[in-house]
Design goal:
- By secondary structure, the chain is of the alpha+beta class.
- The protein has two domains: 3-125, Ribosomal Protein S5, domain 2 (2-Layer Sandwich), CATH 3.30.230.30; 131-210, Alpha-Beta Plaits.
- The chain is 32% helix and 39% strand.
- The protein contains five helices and ten strands, in the order E-E-E-H-E-E-H-E-H-E-H-E-E-H-E.
- It has helices spanning 31-44, 77-86, 106-123, 142-158, 183-190, and strands at residues 3-6, 10-16, 19-27, 50-57, 63-67, 92-99, 127-140, 162-168, 172-179, 199-210.
- Strands 1, 7, 8, 9 and 10 form a five-stranded antiparallel β-sheet that branches. A five-stranded antiparallel β-sheet has the order 2-3-6-4-5, sandwiched between helices.
- Helix 2 packs parallel to helix 3 (106-123).
- The chain is rod-shaped and about 80 Å long.
């Protein structure tokens, strides 16, 4: 199933009773990139009172964090995170910087303001869609490489897998990006291949591959 993220950083400005909320959303391939975006915003707006954050990371969006940064609990980070979830995003970070205008907004007012800042930033962002995939290496002895490579390529075309690299030395070696939902079918396809001298190995890293 495709997942989405923002293609580039986008921003917004929301003003409520003279408090200014500056929203920013940006792509982040991991926690280090997300933290770097947050650090840059803090540096740029060093005089602001609050820099509230939310992020969703990982192929399945299973890493989710938020921070109220001194605002009343649940009034900033959690609403921001809800907006990201609502848009079905991952590998994304949101930061909203608040310049206090002198009037207390109350928890409800803060929730609306932080929600609006992220929503309006996302409205300015272009989305890209990805398929989470596992890198797989397949090694085929030349004696069986013709038939098995043809079968593998046909399977890949049918299952939205992608052949990323092929080399022919002492054997034929193919590197594929196999969508995570298709891994059980890939394992079933290749289960009997070791008896014919073929070998498959799922590489440790999970990659994110853009769909066509």
């Amino acid at each position: 199933m495709p997942i989405s993220t923002v293609s580039a950083a986008a921003s917004s400005r929301v003003e409520v009773k003279k408090s200014v909320f500056l929203g920013k959303v940006a792509p982040a391939a991991g926690a280090a990139e997300a933290d770097a975006v947050i650090a840059q915003v803090r540096k740029e707006h060093y005089s602001a009172r609050h820099h509230c954050t939310a992020m969703i990371l990982g192929p399945d969006g299973n890493v989710q964090r938020s921070n109220d940064d001194g605002e009343p609990s649940g009034s900033a980070g959690a609403p921001m995170l809800s907006v990201l979830r609502h848009h079905g995003l991952t590998d994304v970070v949101a930061v909203v910087t608040r310049y206090f205008g002198g009037t207390l907004l109350g928890v409800g007012g803060l929730i609306r303001a932080y929600t609006d800042a992220v929503t309006q930033a996302l409205a300015q962002a272009a989305l890209v869609h990805f398929i989470p995939a596992k890198l797989v290496l397949v090694e085929l002895p030349f004696a069986v490489s013709g038939d098995l490579e043809h079968l593998l390529r046909a399977w890949a075309a049918d299952r939205c897998a992608q052949v990323l690299d092929v080399s022919y030395e002492e054997s034929a070696k193919l590197t594929l990006a196999v969508p995570l939902p298709e891994l059980p079918a890939f394992r079933e396809l290749t289960a009997a291949w070791p008896a014919r001298g073929a070998a498959t190995a799922e590489l440790e890293d999970t990659v994110i591959r853009q769909t066509a």
